[in-house]
# Entry
Amino acid sequence: DQQVKQNSPSLSVQEGRISILNCDYTNSMFDYFLWYKKYPAEGPTFLISISSIKDKNEDGRFTVFLNKSAKHLSLHIVPSQPGDSAVYFCAAGRRWAGGTSYGKLTFGQGTILTVHP
Amino acid sequence: SAVISQKPSRDICQRGTSLTIQCQVDSQVTMMFWYRQQPGQSLTLIATANQGSEATYESGFVIDKFPISRPNLTFSTLTVSNMSPEDSSIYLCSVEDRTTEAFFGQGTRLTVV
# Structure
């Protein structure tokens, strides 16, 4: 049972344009969502996160939108740059009672983003 | 944020042997996790490494195959035992710091021949 899904295995975008990466989840217990970027031969690098109490979080060129009713989130990159070319993973987790735990995550399959000059 | 050092970065091993992967963090962290990324697949959580007690394994993963140690708050090891070609994957250590999101080591690329 794939609880976190990224249905687009790849995305190709022109430099300067917007990249939109999508993610769907099925487990309504998830209340924290993250995006990671991964280059070959490196571990995933944290990009941006959003709590279920928000519907938008912005950090520079990166914005994550959360639609809880649709169990859908998206990552917008504006403007896209060639250095953004990588695999992007969506991840979801739960806060533990009495604290937080971001480490026990369920990941999507990843989307390969290619930004052309 | 903490710096994670994972060793080895890659290895090629014979089937039937075992490999121990080390994860060293430059500061004390509460939680440490081990993930696997099989070729073309997503990251899958193997287990939570608990300091001073037995690791907590996810469904489909067992201690006999993936024994884990966590002797202190900065170090953990994952052993892949009695390896077969199906164990060829990238193995990743992840840590949680209560002040930030989970972050990852650079991974260990294992090939079993």
